[in-house]
Design brief:
Elements lengths: L4 H12 L10 E4 L13 E7 L5 E6 L5 E7 L5 E3 L9 E6 L2 E6 L8 E9 L2 E4 L3 E3 L32 H40 L8
Antiparallel strand pairs: 1-2, 2-7, 3-4, 3-8, 4-5, 6-7, 8-9, 8-10
Length: 213
């Protein structure tokens, strides 16, 4: 007989946990109401649907990954909450045939997390898919930027209180440059015309040389 550690482990699991082989359990988790937009104080209702009439437990996994036991519901619909209590101020538990119900009476930020339904069938734990239950994320509203204030009592001559328009300022610079160019050009033309006039006048008044006979 083969006595390898792998075979011994399989034989041990077969004797101790017969539910591992040939056993299947279907667990579905749903909420009869829309919980996509939970609010503080709202009642959260969850249902665990199975194909076996067995007891089931409800647990919650918080954001850090820690598990929190809520309640165990036996096959005879007897609920046992944390601490062995039969009732709870925060939760309600129910059982109808193969449907195990859980209700958070008044949802708080501390109740946020993923909820699971767990069943023990033939010494094997079966977990349902997790049902996420979180409050909607609220985004802070950025403070509005106040608009420009209007100085009252100013007149049109108070140009120091106004911010010049960039476009008008650029247009003024262009007009000034063009005016300077025209002035320089006209001044050059005037000087040229004046010099030409002087030369022509000197040629006109100059004496004409006489011919020798």
């Amino acid at each position: 007989m083969d006595t390898s550690p792998a075979l011994l482990l399989l034989l041990t699991l077969g004797f101790c946990c017969p539910g591992i082989y040939g056993q299947s359990l279907e667990i579905k988790l749903r909420s009869p109401k829309d919980i996509s937009q939970l609010r503080v104080g709202q009642k959260l209702e969850l249902e665990c649907h199975t194909d076996r009439n067995h007891g089931a437990s409800w647990i919650r996994q918080d954001r850090s990954g820690s598990l929190h036991f809520i309640v165990f519901i036996s096959s005879v619909s007897r609920a046992t909450f944390q601490g062995g209590q039969r009732t709870s101020n925060r939760f309600e538990a129910s059982k109808d045939s193969s449907i195990h119900g859980l209700a958070v009476k008044s949802f708080t930020p501390q109740d946020q997390g993923s909820y699971f339904c767990v069943m023990n069938l033939n010494q094997m734990l079966h977990f349902s898919p997790g049902q996420r239950a979180f409050l909607p994320v609220t985004t802070a509203v950025a403070p509005s930027t106040p608009g420009p204030t209007t100085q009252r009592g100013t007149t049109e001559g108070d140009s120091c209180l106004r911010t010049p328009d960039p476009d008008s300022r650029m247009q003024e610079d262009l007009d000034s440059s063009c005016l300077t160019f025209l002035c320089v050009t006209l001044a050059g033309l005037c000087l040229l015309l004046l010099a030409t006039t002087i030369v022509l006048y000197q040629l006109k008044v100059a004496p004409t040389p006489s011919r020798c006979t």
